[in-house]
TrEMBL record:
Coiled coil: none
Swiss-Prot/TrEMBL keywords: Cell outer membrane, Membrane, Signal, Transmembrane, Transmembrane beta strand, Transport
Compartments where found: Cell outer membrane
Domain of life of the organism encoding this protein: Bacteria
GO BP field: siderophore transmembrane transport
GO MF term set: siderophore uptake transmembrane transporter activity
Protein name listed in UniProt: Outer membrane protein beta-barrel domain-containing protein
Lineage: Bacteria, Pseudomonadati, Bacteroidota, Flavobacteriia, Flavobacteriales
InterPro entries documented for this protein: Beta-barrel_TonB_sf, CarboxyPept-like_regulatory, OMP_b-brl_3, TonB-dep_rcpt-like
GO CC, any one term: cell outer membrane
């Protein structure tokens, strides 16, 4: 069967590449040349394409060494081209009409030398949220609340995004199965490690965060909810420049967030990098309340309070080198490393009553270390055959090591609080992970209206999981054979895709894509032997159609089919105790889930209205609660639900009250239906929910701005908590920022969660399954934070030629 898939894959790729060669060459672009008064070409001139009438900026370009500039994919319309450079008088063309379907070469633009004036800075603040055909873009730099924050904090304030920090899971518009990417590259790490990475990632280094709910065919088919792509800032200036920021905050403990980044560009070389350090030492409070009937049909209540004192410490470093081998070929090398260490001391007190009478009291002292060390590297080679055709090759190697030793000292008391005994329990989990990925993309504009993209990819993963759980009897450590195991997962994913972009007319565009993925997974356990041996192939079609009704109204429709594979942590045996009768564990029987989704968008000016409906079979609930009546233990673990159906309605409504007061509103309505079978009984759950994200920004004086943000979530059902309900919660955040001048940087002050109101309360009430639990997680704290940031290096630099790394170019293609 595998050979059949392989032959089909090669045949599809061959047909698409052959089709590309049969089409004629064409383009819809505007080019020209800029020179001085004596006819010498001028390099590094800023060239702007402006709409005639309102001078709205459409595109920008920089002239090369020959004074040539090029602007591609220009729509039909009336335009003016403006050229400017320091030391020269700016000059513009006369207004001209462009038909949008050919190549137009303008007359040479001549700049004459003039008196060099003091530098003038022209700035424009982007909207906080921007909707594109397949994604919502969060412009991080547009929010002063992002200064000194982590990537995780930015996402937690984003529309439709919910992070469960305790269980290390992510939900996007009510759906789990989110894949996190960095600069267009998939992270390939467990969800728990992703949360650690995001918590240690400084927002000052981030340009945008993209919420991609309907990914195109050149993205992996993994992830029902879609992708979260974090795009780092990149400088394009010649010379050396950079910036740094320092932050310190106080809440229920202290927190700091510091970073520095640099960029050096000269001739054919671009060298860049950043380093960040974060430390968060703020207390947390967890509460677990469970009611059930024991084997004697008597009502039992177990109430547990966990006072936690965690310290999160993160180091992150990233460095890259781009080298222009020739005018058409660029090679890039990128390396990064992270050391994320989370330690915690906790006191857990658990009290059990039977028919209202105290029966037992347990005090559990918990010491835990969760440390992720991560190294990654990427080599990219991109070659442009011509302006409309290129090939890009990426090779990635990733290595992770996760260590999670935990020690529990359990003191047991009777119902009268008289001491009975002490028990020392210890668990240890070591997980080394290696991932190798290689992919190749080929892109060609075959006619004025047709673009073709094809690609292949292979991902090879090797996960080890060594779990030991046991108790001490004197000096002897006695392993618990039911919870101790060593397992290994080997997974191979081979994929190929083809995507066709066809401009039906000047106002209507169609994109069709087809991706094929073949997965081969094998999980071997020392205790159970081979517990997973899966080989399967799937086709994943995508379709997008967009129509521009006029300059202010756009309509988009999309369809996609996707897969959510269980993570290694979902399947591997592990255990995390809350108390001796409550813990989290894995489940090797979890199967992949397949979803189908349609989405319709209406964009009117800057307002957004989106409706999306998805159906997923075999939805993976990562933390479904299950009650073991024999041992009276509550177990949280991954399992497959029968089906989930989610309808969402999103409204984005930005308002400009005055030139100094702007408002951004986002409303998301969700209708969630879940069908599942528990112990042979069919259950149906349905919940309507609402998410409101409201931001107001003010320019109070020159160089003085402020911002307030309100985020509200009504009661909701989330895929990763299965049949449980997340109760309502809200947060209110405020900030103010003052620019101290060009040389003196910026200082900011903010308060996160002003009313200290963010608490997660998860309720499960299924009497038929003897399940009635209320669990509260108070992870967040009201925090007062002061931040100072500044830049260094040459502040008056000419821009170099516009070129990004291979990853950035790939991102631009799907934009």
């Amino acid at each position: 069967m595998y050979m059949v898939h392989k032959i089909y894959h090669r045949f599809l790729l061959g047909v698409l590449v052959l089709s590309a060669s049969l089409f004629s060459y064409g383009q819809n672009s505007i080019d020209g040349k800029v020179q001085d008064e004596v006819g010498d070409p001028l390099a590094y001139v800023n060239v702007l394409l402006l709409k005639t009438g309102d001078s709205t900026l459409v595109k920008g370009a920089i002239t090369d060494e020959s004074g040539i500039f090029l602007m591609e994919d220009v729509a039909k319309g009336a335009y003016t081209v403006s050229a400017s450079m320091m030391g020269f008088k700016p000059n513009s063309t006369e207004s001209f009409e462009f038909d949008g379907s050919s190549k137009l070469t303008l007359s040479t633009i001549v700049l004459s030398q003039g008196v060099e004036l003091d530098e003038v800075t022209v700035s424009s603040k982007k909207n906080l949220y921007a909707q594109k055909i397949d994604r919502m873009v969060i412009n991080v730099a547009s929010s002063i609340l992002s200064v000194g924050s982590s990537a995780l904090e930015i996402l937690e304030r984003s529309p439709g995004v919910i992070f469960d920090r305790q269980n290390s899971s992510i939900s996007l518009v009510g759906k789990n199965g989110v894949v996190v990417m960095i600069n267009g590259k998939q992270s390939y790490m467990p969800a728990s490690s992703v949360v650690q990475l995001l918590q240690g990632m400084n927002a000052n280094n981030i340009e945008t965060i993209e919420l991609i709910t309907t990914p195109p065919a050149n993205f992996d088919a993994e992830g029902n909810a879609g992708f979260i792509n974090i795009v780092f800032k990149e400088r394009t200036d010649v010379g050396l420049n950079g910036s740094y920021s320092l932050s310190f905050g106080v809440g229920n403990g202290t927190t700091t967030s510091d970073n520095i980044n640099f960029n050096y560009r000269k001739n054919r070389i671009n060298l860049y990098g950043n380093y960040s350090f974060q430390r968060d030492a703020q207390g947390q409070l967890f509460e677990f309340d469970r009611n059930f009937s024991n084997t004697n049909a008597l009502p039992v209540n177990i109430s547990t309070i966990s006072n936690r004192d965690p310290i999160q410490r993160n180091h992150g470093i990233r460095a890259g080198l781009d080298y222009q081998l020739s005018d058409k070929t660029v090679m890039g090398l990128l390396v990064w490393a992270n050391d994320n260490k989370w330690t915690m001391d906790a006191i857990n007190q658990s009290r059990e009553t039977e028919s209202g009478t105290p029966r037992a009291f347990i005090e559990l002292l918990n010491t835990e270390r969760n440390q992720l060390q991560h190294f990654g590297s990427n080599i990219n080679l991109k070659h442009d055959f011509n302006e409309d055709e290129f090939i890009s090759i990426d090779l990635d190697y990733l290595k992770y090591r996760l260590e999670n030793p935990t020690r529990y000292t359990n003191s047991f008391f009777d119902g009268n609080n008289d001491f009975l005994r002490e028990e020392l329990t210890q668990s240890d989990k070591t997980t080394p992970i290696t991932v190798t990925a290689i992919k190749m993309d080929y892109n060609k504009k075959v006619t004025d209206r047709v673009k073709l993209e094809v690609g292949v990819k292979g991902v090879f993963s090797d996960f080890d999981n060594d779990v030991t759980v046991g108790t001490f009897q004197g000096q002897d450590f006695i392993e618990d054979p039911s919870l101790t195991d060593i397992s290994n997962l080997k997974e191979r994913i081979l994929a190929g895709y083809g995507s066709l972009d066809y401009a039906i007319s000047d106002k209507t565009n169609l994109q069709l894509g087809l991706r094929y993925e073949h997965t081969d997974s094998e999980l071997v356990s020392n205790v159970q032997g081979k517990v997973v041996d899966r080989q399967f192939g799937e086709l994943f079609p995508t379709a997008y159609i967009s129509h521009k009704v006029n300059d202010t109204l756009n309509l988009n429709f999309s369809y996609s089919r996707r897969i959510t594979r269980p993570t290694f942590n979902d399947m591997a045996p592990f255990v995390i105790f809350v108390d001796p009768t409550t813990f989290f564990s894995g489940n090797p029987a979890v199967q992949p889930a397949i979803s189908n989704s349609i989405k319709f968008d209406v964009n009117y000016r800057s307002a957004i209205l989106s409706a999306q409906y998805s159906v997923e079979d075999g939805t993976i609930s990562k933390f479904q609660s299950r009650f073991d009546e024999v041992n009276e233990r509550l177990i949280f673990g991954a399992t497959n639900l029968d089906r989930s159906q989610i309808f969402s309605l999103t409204l984005g409504l930005p308002l400009t009250v005055t030139n100094w007061w702007k408002i951004q509103n986002s409303f998301i309505f969700l209708n969630t239906k879940i069908t599942t079978t528990l112990n042979g009984t069919l259950f149906n759950f349905e919940q309507n929910s609402l998410n409101i994200n409201h931001t107001q920004s003010f320019t109070m004086a020159k160089d003085l701005t402020s911002e307030i943000n309100f985020n509200y979530n009504s009661p909701s059902i989330l895929g990763f908590i299965g049949t449980s309900t997340l109760e309502e919660f809200y947060s209110f955040n405020i900030g103010v920022q003052k620019k101290l001048g060009e040389k003196w940087g910026t200082i900011g002050f903010k308060i996160n969660d002003l009313f200290d109101a963010v608490k997660w309360t998860v309720v499960t009430d299924i009497p038929e399954q003897n399940l009635n639990t209320v669990n509260t997680f108070d992870i967040f704290n009201r925090t007062f934070m002061l931040t100072y940031s500044n830049s260094f290096g040459n502040r008056k630099l000419k821009s170099a030629r516009q070129r990004g790394t291979g990853t950035e170019e790939e991102k631009n293609r799907v934009d």
